Amino acid sequence: YPPRFPLYSSDEFARAYGNRRAEADAYDPVIPAPIWESSGDTGSRIMDPVAFAVDVCPDRSHSSIAVAGSREDERTHVEVVEYRPGTGWIPQRMAELASRWSPRSVVIDGGGPAASLIPALEELDIPLDVSGARDMANACGMFYDAALADQLRHVHQAPLTEALLAAQKRPLGDAWAWSRKGSTVDISPLVAATLAVWGHSTHASTTTADASVFF
Predict the structure, then answer these.
(1) Exposed/middle/buried for residue 56 (C-beta within 10 Å: 0-12, 13-18, 19+)
(2) Can you tell me the mean pLDDT for 52-65?
(3) What is the pLDDT of residues 153-185, one digit of tens each?
(4) Nearest Cα to Cα of residue 203 among 109, 139, 133, 120
């Protein structure tokens, strides 16, 4: 189970956060950095059933697939499965993952850049949940609440952590959502992770499955 992306040590994380704070336009992350760091667990393992989510950055230069599921301690494990340039690789990779895992949900934001992939994914019989604005607001609130309540675990992946540190909020009715355009880096790993957590929480089975290693 080798890590797919670089992992941050605590010191590297602190230095990265410190450098970001030193910039003139620095701001506090929506989820405080110490909370995010403490919720990392490189030994975390996910259990079946799982949920996936897909997201694409606004300029379509990169895309992300994330997964979420329960752990043995009933906390939620979230992980970036793939983060690659472009979008053309997504349908086939998502079909491979869906075939292997039979996910409860594959979430895609119907109002976001990834929506253009819906026809290609549907042609492959992938079980999509197309989220709307209210769903996105609920997903962001759920992700935030889980992190602050110590119910979320991640594996210190650089793409997800960098997105979390840079992400800003945008108003969405009486709630908020992650701002793709307002953030200083590509936050598609974070948006995908957020939607995966929402998809898992919304569709997860109440039965207990055997623990499974994701990769």
Answers:
(1) buried
(2) 97
(3) 999 999 999 999 999 999 998 999 999 988 889
(4) 139
Q: Residue 172 gets which letter from DSSP?
A: E
Residue appearing with tokens 């962001």: 140
pLDDT in tens, 1-30: 333 444 444 444 444 544 444 343 456 899
Give dist(CA 107, CA 97) in Å, integer: 13
Nearest-angstrom CA–CA distance, 137 and 194: 10
Query: What are the helix and strand counts (H, E) for the chain?
Result: 7, 8
Q: Taking Cα atoms as reference points, which of 57, 20, 11, 44 lies closest to residue 213?
A: 44
Q: Is the pLDDT of residue 88 over 50?
A: yes
- Provide CB contacts within 8 A for 138, sequence distance 6+: 175, 198
Q: Are 2 and 110 in contact (CB under 8 A)?
A: no
Q: Which residue shows structure tokens 């769903």?
A: 135
Helix, strand, coil shares, percent, the chain, to 5: 40, 25, 35
CA distance 78 to 82: 13
